[in-house]
Write a structure and sequence with these properties.
By secondary structure, the chain is of the alpha/beta class. It has one domain (about 5-245): Metallo-dependent phosphatases (Purple Acid Phosphatase, chain A, domain 2). Helices cover about 40% and strands about 20% of the residues. It has 8 helices and 11 strands. The protein has helices at about 20-40, 65-75, 95-100, 130-140, 140-150, 155-165, 175-195, 240-245; strands at about 5-10, 40-45, 80-85, 100-105, 110, 115-120, 200, 210, 215-220, 230, 235-240. The strands form 2 sheets. A 6-stranded mixed β-sheet has the order 4-3-2-1-10-11. The protein has a 5-stranded mixed β-sheet with strand order 5-6-7-9-8. Helix 2 (about 65-75) links the parallel strand 2 (about 40-45) and strand 3. Helix 1 packs parallel to helix 2 (about 65-75). The longest helix is centred in the N-terminal third of the chain and has 20 residues, at about 20-40. The mean pLDDT is about 95. The site of manganese (II) ion has 8 residues, from loops. Manganese (II) ion binds near residues 87 and 121.
């Protein structure tokens, strides 16, 4: 994989383009400009889109500017990898063949310049999250996807907009985050015992990096309050707050 490798997650590109959303996207595209200067790889670690469901002949138009920016990154030599999250798992040929160089539908293990990475979006990792793990199995099943794809797209996206409005809380309570940190560190510790150097997760919107024994755990931030990314330069992994960086 070409270095530097930029890890970005939880951008949650929205279906509705209001002023706030346009500003958020501009911020992301400014990071793309920076990535163009260094070259390398852009690795999206899930929930890039707030909702993405691809039909055999249709793609969501709300992200057309993103498709264009991504294509120009690719044309100019930046590799694009995408590990899908719980908001954008329903990716098909357009994303796989035309936008990204590689799409992953589950946790993955990669090696870059002799360092071993465990990469995960992170949903369903927590020990107490039994209900969610069951839901995850259902909505990612072939049967569910097959049934859902027969819904008229207008109706399907209406449902998605409704769920996105009603159920999404981007900030968690301090107590919840405390428990999440403890759990994720335990998961990371096991990976590091098995020879991994780094674990990178999205989903929890923390924007924090932890040293656990000999390894480093990065829990990426979202792009609502404190946009950030992690970058591996071939030697080490660092977490960068994009606002400070500009
Ligand atoms: Mn997520």
């Amino acid at each position: 994989m070409k270095t530097p490798v930029y890890f970005i997650s939880d951008v949650h590109l929205k279906l509705s383009l209001d002023k706030k959303e346009v500003d958020r996207r501009d911020k992301l595209y400014r990071l793309f400009e920076k990535i163009l200067e260094t070259g390398g790889t852009c690795f999206f670690l899930g929930d890039l889109f707030d909702f993405y469901f691809e039909y055999p002949d249709l793609i969501p138009k709300a992200y057309s500017d993103f498709y264009e920016k991504a294509t120009s990154l690719k044309k100019r030599g930046v590799d694009l990898h995408f590990l899908t999250g719980n908001h954008d798992y329903w990716t098909k040929e357009f994303m796989e063949d035309m936008i990204m160089d590689k799409v992953y539908f589950d946790d993955t293990q990669i090696e870059i310049d002799g360092k071993r990475f465990y990469l995960t979006h992170g949903d369903g990792l927590l020990s107490w999250d039994h209900g969610y793990r069951l839901l995850k199995k259902v909505i990612r099943s072939k049967t569910f996807i097959w049934l859902f794809h027969w819904l008229h797209p207008t109706l399907a996206y209406k449902i998605a907009r409704f769920i996105s409005r009603s159920g999404h809380h981007h900030t968690h309570t301090a107590d919840f985050n405390k428990d999440v940190r403890i759990e994720l560190k335990q998961v990371a510790e096991k990976h590091f015992e098995n020879g991994f150097d780094y674990m990178i997760s999205g989903h929890y919107h923390l924007g924090e990096m932890f040293t656990v024994n000999k390894g480093k755990l990065a829990v990426l931030g979202d792009w609502f309050y404190r946009p950030s990314y992690a970058v591996f330069d071939g030697h080490d992994l660092n977490l960068v707050l994009w606002e400070n960086d500009e």
